[in-house]
Amino acid sequence: MLVKGYEEPLVLPEEPKIAGEDAGDARPEPKEPTTPGQIAAHMFSRLRGSNNLVFPNSRREVERYTHLLNRLCEQQKVPNEFWPHHGSLSKEIRAETEAALKQKEYPATAICTNTLELGIDIGAVKSVAQVGAAPSVASLRQRLGRSGRRKGEPATLWGYCVEDELGGAQSLEADLRLGTVHMAAMVSLLAESWFEPPRAQGRHYSTLIQQLLSAIAQTGGATIAHLYALLCAPDAPFAGISKAEFAGLVRHLGTRELLMQDSSGVLLHGRLGEKFVNHYTFYAAFASDEEYRVIAGGRTLGTIPVDQMLTIGQRILFAGKTWLVQDVDEPQKTIFVTRAGGGVPPLFSGGAGRCHTVVRQRMRKLLESNEMPGFLDRQAKVFLSQAQANYASRGLAGSSVVDEGREVRLLTWLGDAAHEALACILLRRGFKATPAGPGVAVIKGQNTTENVLDAVQDAAMDETPPLDVLLADVKNLQREKWDWALPDNLLRHAYASVHLDIDEALGWARAFAASMP
Question: Per residue in 41-56, pLDDT tens?
Fold first, then answer.
């Protein structure tokens, strides 16, 4: 198990924007980073000749590393051993990769998303490479578990983390080397056999819709009373869902043409319900991960994985630039943006998955200590040492507030579920707030830092706001396969039950308020 660090050279700022220039106008493409080529060269030297899995954190990066590794094979005049695998590729291309991994005559390595994390038989794998932090410790554990299955062969993990060279107007993310610290925290927790517990109390309405349609397909039709007893009785899988909620869901599914009721009161499949149930994709209960297109001025900039909430006015980092979210089209999986002004780049840039509080607390522990894990290589240790020094020089051990001019960072070191909840609470109070790495970023606008802190104190003393109010201005709540078919109130409850931790957010706000003079 080894985590290697790579430093991306500092790039000079782009030319100032010309007055009157349209934010969507074509601009020079950002300079191609140098570190992916270095990482690919190391992979080529270590992985070639055996079967392996390589996990970058997006489909775009899968394509990048596949291209770089294929080019190295061409340059070295050796047979290609590196194959792509992600959800946007055709079934035929994915099948080629799976076949290459399963055959025993020639070595093969798949560069993949979580499509090869579990569930597909690909034979024995010697090692796993992870570029950037994995989506979760549980995911990293699952991926590593696919290697070392031969007798006498250990499970092997190659980790790669990239940090920008320090210099110029430095962001909090760069100063604290958060990518390296995040990966170090995850690997250390993995070594201790810890992984994220499931959210057992989630309101999984999407799966309930799947089971409703399945039960009707099995019986040829059923009454609402029979279906409620089957699925929502006290000892049933969806116990806790009231009769009123269930009846409201059934009525809404009727408006979506998933269900219909005959003259005797028996529920049957509607026009769309019949179509979905008779298609092979119905048997998968979970949706594949989707990436959102990013569009500026009618021009598609690319795609970005999104696993956190989005709000209008939010700033995101994409292709090395900062963008302002103007609108989100959920059915078309599209984010419309314009170029944002200067200032500190936001920490949100898609990918990486959702971070648990235990992981963030371990990150904080690493930053507040002189600990230097043995699985880090020389450069990764330099990154961690820099992070520890910058954490101390910024005085972050004794402060949760970072004033960055246009924004205030509230550093909670909690998980994303608490950060999303805290951001929603501040949105309700008129602030533009978004989860941002180890905390929440709040745009000041016409306010001051004191106004932001006053809002946190007020939230700490108030009652917990209702979900319809808390999530009123939040986009992209549809995460599961059948979320599109839910009424708005049930969609909000489903999302909040799995993705928000309101109690943890308010607990931090109350502790913060109590510490204020």
Answer: 999 999 999 989 999 9
